[in-house]
Specification:
Layout: E1 3-11, E2 14-22, E3 61-64, E4 70-73, H1 75-85, E5 89-96, E6 106-114, H2 119-132, E7 135-142, E8 145-154, E9 157-163, H3 187-200, H4 212-226, H5 239-245, H6 247-259, H7 267-274
Parallel strand pairs: 1-5
Antiparallel strand pairs: 1-2, 2-6, 3-4, 5-7, 6-9, 7-8, 8-9
């Protein structure tokens, strides 16, 4: 599991060396773009409006104001801010009840693992949070972005959940068309709706819910692979190199390719085809 962040959690004078690991995995199926005619991958070039190809040392960072004017932010200025704010210590500011945080504030979840010498203090903080039924509220900077964060117990471990700051949450008034008034609903409709909720109420079991679209897409891809519906691309290496890199894969692919072919008359010919 890849380490996302390494530092310490500070609770008063107690310092706990920890590492953060992403607790969730993005299983979105990603596609590449190929050119239809030559079947080569689509690449992207950095080109200015003057139609000149641009190298990395010719690119500057700018911020554009609402009126269209821009100011340059140099790498030196960014690095100075990073040195000032990218602290490797997460200081717990307050302890609060988990129920006091509306889910709209939650951003991403990380597992917190103890680092060298931090096992005992880690276990202590975990037990304190369990017994008090509280969570620790802190600030953390990950990859040049500062987050409000909640540290809470999860099973036998700790997790850290990054939170949005209040000014990152859009107000309800920004919803196009506004929100309808409750007076638009009759008592009879409300009672019928409440009854429906009661009938559909159950205990939450995460295993009951799956990404049915991703499952169907995985099946579609699997079917195409099983049917050998591959396309030849210019990105493929020459067959001689493939045999050197992974001989077994090449042999297996050759065997699969001959399965649908008519059986040859002579056994000797069959052996030659299978190992070609």
């Amino acid at each position: 599991m890849h380490t996302v962040w390494k530092g310490t959690i500070s609770m008063g004078l107690v310092t706990i060396p920890v590492k953060l690991y992403s607790a969730v995995e993005d299983k979105t199926i990603k596609f590449r773009q190929f050119h239809k005619d030559c079947l080569s991958p689509i690449s992207y070039k950095k080109v200015a409006s003057c139609d000149d190809d641009v190298t990395s040392d010719e690119i500057i960072k700018v911020f554009e104001t609402p009126n269209g004017r821009v100011v340059e932010i140099t790498e030196a200025e960014l690095n100075k801010l990073k040195e000032e704010f990218e602290l490797k210590t997460v200081s717990i500011i307050d302890f609060i009840k988990l129920s006091e945080i509306d889910p709209i504030y939650y951003d991403k979840t990380y597992y917190v693992g103890p680092d060298s010498g931090g096992a005992k203090a880690y276990a202590l903080l975990s037990e304190i949070l369990k017994k008090s039924k509280k969570i620790g509220l802190a600030k953390i900077t990950i990859r040049s972005k500062q987050y409000l964060s909640a540290i809470r117990p999860y099973k036998n471990a700790l997790i850290l959940e990054t939170l949005h700051f209040p000014d990152e949450i859009r107000t309800i008034e920004t919803i196009p068309g506004g929100v309808p008034e409750i007076s638009a609903v009759s008592d009879r409709e409300l009672q019928a709706g409440m009854l429906l909720v009661e009938q559909l109420t159950t205990e939450f079991n995460p295993s009951n819910y799956t990404d049915t679209y991703r499952t169907a897409l995985e099946q579609l891809i699997s079917d195409k692979v099983q049917k050998n519906e591959f396309i030849s691309t210019t990105a493929e290496e020459p067959s001689e190199q493939k045999n050197v890199v992974d001989l077994m894969s090449a042999l297996q692919a050759s065997i699969e390719r001959t399965k649908d072919a008519a059986p040859p008359k002579k056994p000797r010919t069959t052996r030659k085809k299978a190992t070609s």
